[in-house]
Amino acid sequence: MMWKLLICFILNVSCSHRADGIYLKNEVAVINEFESITECVITLSGLLNMSPTFTILKQKDEDNKENEFIEQLVRSLAKHNTPQAILEDVTDHDEDSHDLYINSLTVVFFGSCEEAIQFDYKNVNKIKYLIVISDPTSNDCGKILKAIKETVGEFDVTFIIQDFSSDINKIYTIFPYKDINTCEMVHKLTHINTCINSTLETQEVFPMKTPTNYNKCPLRVGMATLFPFSTIKDHNSLKSYDPLEESQIKGSDLEMLKVISKHFNASLELHYINRSEENPYVDTELLKFLFNDSLDICAGGLYRIYGDVVAYSGIYSRQDVLWIYYGQRSERSWENLIRKMYSSYIFIIFYFTYSIIWYFICLFDGNSVSFTNTLLYGWGGLVGATSIQEPRSAKQKVINIMYLILCVFLSVFVSIQLYSYLTIQVPPQLFKTNDEVMESGRVAFLKPITKYFNRDEKYLKFADKSQDCSSFMDCSNKTIQYNGLTIVLQSYFYIIQAMTTVDDEARILRASENVLTVFNEMLIRKNSSLVVKIQKIIPRLFEGGITRKQFIEAIGLSVVDKAGIANANTITNSYSCQAGCKITLKQIAGAFHIWLFGCGLSCFFFVIEVLSKRKIKTI
């Protein structure tokens, strides 16, 4: 168990041990020796972002000086109503004790500088340690503490050294920094604060230890490939960890790394890392370069899929995974015109109804009438080619008036349909939801190794019926060729839509609903001193829209604009004549062709009739 001995836990209660009668009157002066430094400890804790529980680490039962310090600290904490716990050690990492020490300030007392050096600091990770040193025999404890160096250089360990010659307690910590000559990480003991009569000179207690100045030393970065985050020239001929020049790389991740390197005053040392773009789960080779400290950062459109073995930068890009499909506008044809006139069948029904009723009314009135003539005159009236039969009774007049109204409505209906057919182009078939896409009856083209990324049952059944393709671009080309469907990342959609525009209109469209949304993050070596600082820089760039701007620029501003304009034109041009527009002679040329054909046919019959009469006269 991590806490081998829990001596006492006090919450707003004084653990004074008065009942034991340990302390005599002549010992009060000795205890007061630590009153000043314990008050400094309490003042120092007030600068933390939390109200910590004090964890007092008791190391030796027989050490009177340590016992005296702890007793005085307990009294001071009780006076300030501060919770506290006295423990023997914090060596184990059981989950029950994790939350206790992670939200506490661990205070350790040493009676000499040498004892502080010999202390085991291996468990200081994530724990805030305040090391109190009271050594009246040492004039310069700071020099002795330099021996600790990198042991605690990257962790929250602060030393407060009691000065017996004056009531001035100096506060130190150890900072890591890049040596300008060797570019190695070195550590330096630094005086950060001073406590005089329980008053601190500055607000520094546990300062951030991420080195902010690399002195132009390199950040070692591994670059994978994924458009538009990172595209590397001739990357197929490279092996993992091959060196790269900036001129070989294009993409938004490189621009972001330049921002980071500028912040740290560092240079970039770039290396290629091999990673499958379309199925990143199968490649974990890049992790070994982080584990063996060969790389500090890995970038290139990576995802948070590697668990907690590495640290992550935070989200800097978000893009959709979506269905795209071929959207071709219907062309003008006789077939489409007939389909548009389909509703006119209702007028045919009324035409036959009128003819039958007219015929029986005439019979009832005793008028001789031919049913064939009734059909011919009724049709002539319906299409406006001739007048209908003359009525002879009131009943016939009423039915003729109703039928003439119907003929007017048919004329209006046909005129509107012809006008809209010749002037207004409806948009292509549009899909809003993923269900509409999968129920459209179109064939999907998907990569075999990646198409089962979505575990939705309906999607899996649809994916089973899909046809294979080899890459995003191959799937897109087959989608266009066979009027099909495919799934792509949003960045590829912009490219494909811009490439396939016809007359400034989009031919590749997307479903309004996303299949899913993916988030991109950089990987950072877990034990790197850069982690905390980068995790603050990246979210700020993301929230400020900087990374989105870099993403769009990497795709191409003209490409994204062209795709957006083409997509808008597809809808706008579909209804551009709602307010009215002209019908050109070219659009109604078919009517003139039919009329000329009729004139020609009449002339043909006229010639035949003339020739036949001449032949009869000759005989």
From TrEMBL:
It comes from the Eukaryota. The keyword Metal-binding does not apply. The keyword Membrane applies. Keywords: Cell membrane, Glycoprotein, Membrane, Receptor, Signal, Transmembrane, Transmembrane helix. InterPro entries: Insect_Ionotropic_Sensory_Rcpt. It is a multi-pass membrane protein. It is found in: Cell membrane. GO terms for cellular component: plasma membrane. The chain crosses the membrane at residues 342-361, 401-422, 592-611. Residues 1-21 form the signal peptide. PANTHER family: IONOTROPIC RECEPTOR 20A-RELATED (PTHR42643), IONOTROPIC RECEPTOR 60A (PTHR42643:SF24). This is Uncharacterized protein LOC113497769. The gene is LOC113497769.
